[in-house]
Specification:
The protein is an alpha/beta fold. The protein contains three helices and nine strands. A five-stranded mixed β-sheet has the order 1-2-5-4-3. Strand 4 and strand 5 form a beta hairpin. The protein is extended. The model has no long low-confidence stretch (mean pLDDT 85).
C-alpha cells in the first residue's frame, strides 16, 4: 500500500473522530496528512484534555511542545500530543498564548506534563499556571533568554570556558572573532562589481557537443 493510500485510510478513520470531538468538546478540528488537530481555547485546556482522557480513551500524553510565530498577537502555540492505545489513534491539541498570559497546567490530568511544561518554559518562556516547580530544565544556571524564540540570537549572550588561571569555569559575554558577513554568491571575495570567477568545468557550459 502506498503512503498516499495509507494517509487516505487514516484520514477516513480520523475524520469521523474529529467530527465527534468537535460536537462533544466544542472545539475546532483539522485533519491533514493523516493527523487530527484540535484547536481549543487556552482557559479550557484542562477540561478538553480531561474529556479526551476519560471519554475518548486517549490514555497517554506523548509530548508538550511549542511553536513561535512572532508576528501574531499571541505568538506562541502550546501543542499537546496524545495517543489512544484502544483506538490506535493520535490527536494533537493546540492553544495559543504570549509571554504574559499563563496556560493552565495539565499535571493533574497527565502527570508526565510536568517535565514537558518545564521544557516549554525554558525554551520559549511559556508560563504554566499552577505548575508546582516552574524552573528551567535544560539551560544553565543564570541563563538569560529563551533559546527557541525566533528573536533569540543564534550566538546567545554569554559563552562558557574553563579558565586555567582561576581553575574554574567562567562565563563571559560572547566575543565574535569576526563580524557576520552577507556573502555575495556572484563573487564572494571581491564583491558584485567584479565578474564572477569561472569554476573548473564552467567553461564547457556553452560548448555544444
Amino acid at each position: 500500500m502506498t503512503s498516499l493510500a495509507v494517509q487516505a485510510q487514516h484520514e477516513a478513520v480520523l475524520t469521523p473522530l474529529g467530527t465527534e470531538l468537535v460536537g462533544a468538546l466544542g472545539v475546532e478540528a483539522q485533519v491533514a496528512f493523516g493527523e487530527l488537530t484540535l484547536v481549543a481555547p487556552r482557559e479550557r485546556i484542562v477540561e478538553v484534555l480531561t474529556a479526551l482522557r476519560d471519554r475518548f480513551q486517549f490514555q497517554q500524553l506523548l509530548d508538550v511542545c511549542g511553536a513561535d510565530y512572532p508576528d501574531r498577537e499571541e505568538r506562541f502555540e502550546v501543542v499537546y500530543h496524545l495517543l489512544s492505545l484502544t483506538k490506535n489513534a493520535r490527536v494533537r491539541v493546540k492553544v495559543t498564548t504570549d509571554e504574559v498570559q499563563p496556560v493552565p497546567t495539565v499535571i493533574e490530568v497527565y502527570p508526565s506534563a510536568g517535565w514537558f511544561e518545564r521544557e516549554a518554559y525554558d525554551m520559549y518562556g511559556m508560563v504554566f499556571e499552577g505548575h508546582p516547580d516552574m524552573r528551567r530544565l535544560l539551560t544553565d544556571y543564570g541563563f538569560e533568554g529563551h533559546p527557541l524564540r525566533k528573536d533569540f540570537p543564534m550566538t546567545g549572550y554569554v559563552e562558557v570556558r574553563y579558565d586555567e588561571e582561576q581553575k574554574r569555569v567562567v562565563y563571559e559575554p560572547v566575543k565574535l572573532t569576526q563580524e557576520f558577513r552577507t556573502f555575495d554568491f556572484l563573487s564572494p571575495w571581491e564583491g558584485a562589481e567584479y565578474p564572477a570567477p569561472v569554476l573548473p568545468g564552467d567553461e564547457k557550459a556553452g560548448v555544444k557537443g
